[in-house]
Task: structure prediction
Amino acid sequence: MILRLFGENLKMIDAIKADVRDWYELHQHNDTTSAIVWVFYLQLILMVVLLILLPFDTVQIEGRYRLIKPLNFTGSFAVYLATIVIILDHLHASVKLKKVISWGISICILTAITCITMQAARGTTSHFNKDTPFDTIVSVLMDIADPLNSVFVFVLLILILRKKLDVSPTTQLGFVFGLIIFLVGGAIGEVMVFKGQNVVGVAPGGPGLPIVNWSTTGGDLRIAHFLGIHAIQILPIAGWLIGRLQVLGGSMQVKRIQVVVVSAAYVLAIGFLFMQALNGTPLVRM
Result:
């Protein structure tokens, strides 16, 4: 039994190695996605560096160690960039248009992570920071990069609606709803920019949940924002699973309806969390 499990683990490791090798070979000389792939690699490298430095971090910003925020963002950005690469790989569109989207999103993400990491290294906040002229410039840069990134995502959405992805129908539907809800999550981010803070009913920097630092004393718009922007990964995976799992049964039309139902439930969850935050109610009160 132990030898069999060991053999299965080795096969799994070999499969992962093969997938990584295929990923590298596919994009090594691919001008269409080369920019975004290199920014993806940069996120992974920065994540490793931050993890190494984290045990030695002694400076806290708004109740958590300063390196945790850029560490969280590198992970989120890496998953996001990998998702965009997958979309571009399967999208039927011109190489020139794909390159524009790849470079545009790459510049937006590179700008954001540079600002977040630099401000953390300086021992200050990045978002909504207007303490000095320099801090204001950094904050404005991020306020520009985020909606600009959403513009490129909107272009992707239009392209997917006009020119199908080379994936299963349910996976494509998951991508469509995922991109739409991603834009909703981006809009929630703009609400935070308009308010000048991410919490409601309490002052910024108060008690929060470990790692994510979501407020435990007031409403926090980051929760609905987080759920919204990660719909771009969650709903395509849900669509893929619905398409493959025979236990659910039904025709392709029924499976499409199931994807719609899951997406609608996801939207309702975001709406509930958004209204809860606006009412000043924390997700978990501690």
The longest strand covers residues 60-61. The beta strands are 60-61, 64-65, 199-200, 219-220.
